[in-house]
Amino acid sequence: MSLLSNSLLLSSIFLSLLFLPDLVMPKTLESDTNELSILKQSIDPSTIRPSSFLSTWNFKHDPCENMEGFFQGILCRISDDNSRSRVTALNLDPAGYDGLLPPSIGNLTDLVVLSLSNNNLRGPIPDSIVQLRKLNVLALSANFFTGELPGGILNLHNLESLDVSNNVLVGTIPAGLAGLRRLSRLGLSKNKFHGEIPNLSGLWQLSSLDLSQNQFRGSVPQLPANLRQLSLHHNLLSGHLPKTLSLPRLEILDLSRNHFGGQVANWLLELPSIRRIDVSGNALAGLQVYNFTGRATTLESINTSWNHIGSHLPAMLVTIGGLREIDLSHNRLRGRIPERYGAMVGRSWRRLFLNDNYLVGDVPKSLVRKEALRMKGSLASNCLRCPSGLSLCRGGQRTRYQCSRYNSKD
């Protein structure tokens, strides 16, 4: 999940909570004050630095009456009967707090935002989280939480953002997660989740899905049509790249470091909103590129490196107008480099990595021009005849024996 998008969501919710029409806050509900005190007591005092939010929590003062001075990291609202204030947001700073998240956190029942990311919190995520029915944002990423996701999370139907990435969580994704209809961002990356990814097409508002760096198996499931960012890299997923990825709003697709086979089909490159495709580190055997001349395309970057693609270089790549970055390295590509590749370097291509293949012949003159020398890329470890001193060929070429195995027909 994008840190920027998550921060923007938090900021918008915080601003809506902060600018309330009532300027004078009544005293905090006593039970809310008690829960804040329990939370602070659950943190190792030696990890509460003088400049941190928790260091400002002084219970000689009322929390909601002193949010800026003595209780940084919380926001409040006035209760419906105007008699008390309730804590609605708890957003701790990334100060390295070490401790447990106490079960009593579930008693802060007016919480809309619970954000404790980038600390050293450990132990299980308490089951009492189910009591936080008003929660919009649950951000517990980059801690050391263990165990499974509490089943009660499936009952938090107001959740818009759920991020528990970069912890030590285990188990499978419950199928009921698709019932969180308001969810727009879901981040479970960098954990030890396993099993198959369930059908998530019911998450109609989901725009960002990050399940990377886990142990998920099987194929890519049905996905919501509004998805813009999909990151499934570093898992154990397999099969061909399915049509379930044909999503009209998809902009970023990262399926790298899995076990996908088959080919990168042309339909993937021509998705109406796609900007970046990374399918590196799989077992793909082909790259299908048709003529895009005269057609509007959005693709800016494609990475198919570290696969088994054994065809000739696709000449029609030059017809993808917005393309800027190409990485086809570490494959089994053979034949000559199309002359038109060099022409694109002077126009739009900024990165071109074709190294560690079996390409033959002279390097096109257009790739030796000054414009090409400013481009980032590599032609090393091929079977090319490189001009002396050409930086793109730095690292040398393959031996004749290696080259003859793949270019006997050329």
TrEMBL record:
It holds the Pfam family LRR_1. It is a single-pass membrane protein. Keywords: ATP-binding, Glycoprotein, Kinase, Leucine-rich repeat, Membrane, Nucleotide-binding, Receptor, Repeat, Serine/threonine-protein kinase, Signal, Transferase. It is an enzyme of class 2 (transferase). Its EC number is 2.7.11.1. One of its GO terms (cellular component) is membrane. Gene3D superfamilies: Ribonuclease Inhibitor (3.80.10.10). Its main location: membrane. Residues 1-26 form the signal peptide. It is found in: Membrane. GO terms for molecular function: ATP binding; protein serine/threonine kinase activity. This is non-specific serine/threonine protein kinase. It comes from Nymphaea colorata.
